[in-house]
Amino acid sequence: MKRMQNANILISGMRGLGLEIAKNVILGGVKTVTIHDQGVAEWVDLSSQFYLREDDLGKNRAEVSHPRLAELNTYVPVTAYTGELTEEYVQQFQVTEPRLGQ
User: Tens of pLDDT along the chain (102 residues)?
Assistant: First the structure.
């Protein structure tokens, strides 16, 4: 739990699964969450991404999901990133490997 509280998390892809992961991580209480997506909301996204609305069609999925996800836990800063995921950018986030038996 201590490592989780100090983790800066990057979640790429704000379709159905990515949104669900982001929601759970934010509610779980990490240090920061950055959501990433370079795509725009399409009709098909409305069936699986419950934070998108018809008015959001054609807009970046990360940008329109950002304020709605940020409301979930005011103690977790949430930011949206729509640029390219470079190695330099990704290095600022923590990734931990699950270890069996711990």
Answer: 677 778 899 999 999 899 999 999 999 999 999 999 999 999 999 988 888 999 999 999 999 999 999 999 999 999 999 999 988 999 899 754 444 444
Count of domains in the chain?
1
- Tell me the DSSP string of the chain: -HHHHT-EEEEE--SHHHHHHHHHHHHH--SEEEEE--SB--GGGGGT-TT--GGGTTSBHHHHHHHHHHTT-TTS-EEEE-S---HHHHTTS------TT-
15: domain CATH number is: 3.50.50.80
In a domain, 1, yes or no: no
